[in-house]
Design a protein that fits this description.
- The complex is a heterodimer.
- By secondary structure, chain A is an alpha/beta fold.
- Chain A has a single domain, classed as Rossmann fold, CATH 3.40.50.300.
- Chain A has 9 helices and 11 strands.
- In chain A, α3 runs parallel beside α5.
- By secondary structure, chain B is mainly alpha-helical.
- Chain B has 2 domains: 236 residues, no CATH class; 239 residues, no CATH class.
- Chain B has 20 helices and no strands.
- The longest helix of chain B has 37 residues.
- The chains are: A alpha/beta, B mainly alpha.
- At the A-B interface, α2, α3 and α4 of A face α11, α15 and α20 of B.
């Protein structure tokens, strides 16, 4: 049996009284393009922070490619690439210097780091202004640079926290093209996003977290079948007959996000 | 804004005060917040005691001048108050209270309330509090010496205080404007630095070029006196003195001139605040560069035997230093200061270093280390959000810290060589024993500072925002700890030096320093061994503090 790329057991994180993530058992197979969804404050960022070593779990275990994260964090970090929420850039370096720096921090020799940095800058269309500091980059350019930095060492798993947030269509196209190439070469991608259309188009498998608990997990077809079965049994909302559910509809049915009009604020013009 | 009545405006101001209070209370819920408060109380007590001493002094002098019929000499008190009020916030930004008023712009706050909030919160710094305290003391001194003048003095000094308050606000409002963009920031940093050096040069220049005869002194004094009487401190003093002599017209006129100065300053301040109120957004956009295809990426630095992550951090730190005008200028200050002190050397007996040139090298080296602590005590401050990369990368934290510390040591070594050359040219070549003792002393002091700095960088990190360089407040825990460490290092260093002088053999001091250095290196390596664990435990604090927007 193949070792899963990501596996968590009873993963829990508390902030004082607040339980941000509770008893999450997640399994992502190697080579999957995995979307991790949830409403605001559901625990997505907390989970991805734990999976990348930015946050310690309160309890539970995490295994990345079969390696226990808490026991061997350095071994895990060598295998993964991360674009965290804040992008983790060093503003007063140029794009080339930054990529060079990241490559060497991941243990690449100086020639390899420089060669890959040059190739990535070209691919991401960032090579035009070699002396421009990262702090002077636009938001989209910074996203592209952050993704370039996350892949420079050829990670087996890529964690992306909201990679398409604030990115224009052209930059988003470049990012998607890069991610699809990685999947084609056998890498695993774990991403969180609020843009459900993009997740639906890119991801083969999805998990939904709600109020800190994992409420759904599987391929898109499996999730769709689950919602339909629930509706048929009378547990969930009724569905329009013969219509194929979109990811957005699956999501809304799963987290119960539809608010009735009567509940809305009556004083609002 | 139209539509907000007086009661609503009052409610807005109350809400702002309440939210500040709640932020303060919430900050106490963490250990770090409590430590910050404790440090602030200790530092506040030190400043307050100094302030009260100063108040007694200026109050006493004010009483003396008025009761001995020399009220014109009040200018001698108002000028230092003015200088302190304006320059202390620039020199000691660690104690300044900051409030980002841009967040308030989305609310329907009228312009007057916006200005009020800005000025009131801007006034919550030691310079304004102490300046006001000293003006009250002067008014009391004058009131005791000449009770009938008390009310007029209060009025004049209140206007003078308002002028000072507005001037400080105006200067910082414009400074913030210039600091908002990287290019103007760099230019401003250089001008600021040159200005500070020019101020430092006043003393040595006066020492070198002061008039040799009494008549020359009187002439220069007279010219200075005329000039100072045209400026607010002199005008305020003149207004009070004129009232003492019954020249009511002259008193009112000079008072009016102080008012004119205040209005002009208010006008300049208003230009800035109006722009901020309208919601200006100063972007960092720079001119685009020519496309240079085919230009490969240069390989990183390499030193045989040093691991790739350490070298990568070392190279990155050098890039950062070379691109931060303020930091770079801070680091070359020791060299400039030596030149400044060296200028006065034409006159033996004019200063400590002229009398004891042997000490120029250790003093220069100690000053260099002291300035370097700005970097060492907040290692990750300039990295900001980059800290997340350090945490997700496979590099060990101790390697990252060693890379940073190597940069610090390289800068320190380079500066010490320059200081040694400067001392040799400006004073005299330090003896071999003094050179060895100084190097041994630095070998003791530097690792200790690095060890404490590495821990403080993890326990009390503070994001450095380059665009608000002039108005940043360092962590109060760091400020207090830094005082403590420097006190211990200085006391031990002085004791070891004195021992060598007592036995007339500096090599004894060098030996003792080396022994202390061994202990100091031991402490450094013990701390280094624990850095990974501390960083892991404090990763949430590090990311939340350094990734702040």
């Amino acid at each position: 049996m193949d070792i899963p790329a990501i596996r968590t057991e009873h993963l829990t994180r508390r902030f004082g009284e607040l339980v941000a993530v509770e008893d999450v058992n997640l399994e992502v197979a190697s080579g999957q393009f995995f979307g991790f969804l949830g409403p605001n404050g559901a625990g997505k960022s907390t989970t991805i922070k734990m999976l990348t070593g930015l946050l310690a779990p309160t309890s539970g275990t995490m295994q990345i490619l079969g390696i226990d994260f808490e026991q061997q964090p350095v071994d895990v970090k060598r295998q993964i690439g991360v674009v965290p929420e804040g992008m983790a850039l060093f503003g007063r370096l140029t794009g080339a210097e930054y990529l060079n720096f990241v490559g060497r921090m991941y243990g690449l020799d100086r020639e390899t780091a420089a060669k890959r940095a040059g190739e990535l800058l070209e691919f991401m269309q960032l090579a035009d202004q070699p002396k421009k500091l990262v702090t002077d980059y636009s938001h989209g350019m910074q996203k592209k640079l952050a993704l370039a930095a996350a892949v420079i060492h050829g990670p087996k798993i890529l964690f992306l926290d909201e990679p398409f947030e604030g990115v224009d269509a052209i930059a988003a196209g470049t990012l998607k093209s890069m991610l699809q190439r990685m999947i084609a070469r056998g890498a695993t991608i774990f991403l969180t996003s609020h843009v459900l259309e993009i997740v639906e188009r890119l991801c083969s498998h999805v998990a939904i977290i709600h109020k800190g608990r994992l409420v759904a997990q599987g391929s898109l077809e499996e999730l769709r079948a689950g919602v339909e079965a629930q509706a048929a049994s009378g547990d969930g909302d009724q569905l329009a007959p013969g219509k194929k559910l979109t990811l957005e509809e699956i999501f809304l049915h799963t987290v119960g996000g539809v608010r009735s009009a009567e509940q809305e604020l009556s004083w609002l013009g | 804004m139209a539509g907000m009545n007086a009661a609503q405006v009052r409610d807005q101001l109350k809400a702002i005060a309440l939210v500040r209070w709640e932020i303060f209370l919430h900050s106490l819920q963490t250990t770090r917040g409590t430590l910050e408060l404790f440090s602030r109380i200790v530092i506040g007590a030190v400043i307050t005691s100094g302030g009260l001493g100063g108040a007694a002094l200026v109050g006493g002098f004010a009483w003396y001048f008025v009761s001995h019929d020399s009220p014109e000499l009040l200018a001698l008190l108002l000028w230092p108050v003015f200088m302190f009020w304006q320059f202390f916030p620039v020199m000691a930004t660690a104690f300044a209270e900051t409030l980002d008023t841009s967040n308030l712009l989305r609310f329907p706050l009228n312009y007057r309330s916006y200005v009020l909030v800005r000025v009131v919160y801007g006034a919550l710094d030691p310079a304004t509090l102490l300046g006001s305290l000293w003006l009250i003391a002067i008014a009391l001194g004058v009131g005791i010496g000449a009770p009938r003048l008390f009310l007029w003095t209060v009025i004049v000094l209140a206007l003078f205080g308002l002028f000072n308050l507005l001037l400080t606000q105006m200067v910082f409002a414009w400074v913030e404007r210039w600091l908002a963009q990287r290019r103007t920031r760099e230019i401003f940093a250089v001008l600021f630095f040159l200005g500070m050096i020019s101020l430092q040069l006043i003393g040595p220049m006066m020492s070198r070029f002061r008039p040799r005869s009494a008549s020359g002194l009187v002439r220069v004094g007279g010219e200075v006196n005329i000039a100072q009487r045209l400026l607010p401190p002199g005008l305020a003093a003149h207004s009070i003195a004129s009232m003492v002599h019954g020249r009511i017209g002259a008193s009112l006129l000079t008072f009016a001139f102080v008012g004119v100065y205040a209005l002009v300053i208010l006008r300049f301040l208003s230009v800035r605040l109006r722009a901020q109120y309208r919601g200006e957004n100063l972007s960092e956009v720079t001119k685009s560069e020519l496309v240079r295809h085919g230009e490969g990426v240069r390989a990183g630095w390499d030193v045989r035997g040093v691991s790739a992550p350490i070298m990568a951090v070392f190279e990155k730190e050098f890039h950062y230093l070379s691109r931060s005008g303020p930091m770079l200028l801070t680091l070359i200050t020791p060299i400039i200061m030596l030149v400044v002190f060296g200028i006065g050397q034409g006159r033996p007996g004019t200063g400590f270093l002229q009398n004891k040139p042997d000490f120029a090298f250790p003093v220069g080296a100690a000053y260099t280390l002291l300035l370097l602590t700005n970097l060492v005590y907040n290692n990750f401050g300039a990295d900001g959000g980059g800290i997340q990369f350090f945490l997700v990368s496979p590099a060990k934290f101790r390697e990252i810290v060693v890379g940073k510390n190597l940069t610090h040591m390289a800068v320190l070594a380079g500066e010490m060589v320059l200081v040694w050359i400067g001392v040799s040219l400006l004073f005299r070549r330090p003896s071999l024993a003094m050179t060895a003792t100084t190097i041994a002393g630095i070998l003791f002091a530097a690792p200790l500072n690095l060890a404490v700095g590495n821990l403080l960088s993890l326990y009390a990190p503070k994001k450095i925002a380059f665009e608000t360089f002039g108005r940043q407040r360092a962590s109060q825990v760091t400020v207090l700890t830094s005082f403590g460490v420097q006190l211990i290092v200085f006391a031990l260093g002085a004791a070891v030096f004195m021992l060598g002088r007592y036995y007339r053999d500096l090599w004894i001091s060098a030996g003792l320093f080396l022994a202390l250095a061994a202990v100091s290196f031991g402490i450094y390596f013990v701390v280094l061994g624990r850095v990974d664990g501390v960083a892991q435990r404090r990763r949430e604090i590090l990311t939340s503090e350094l990734c702040k927007a």
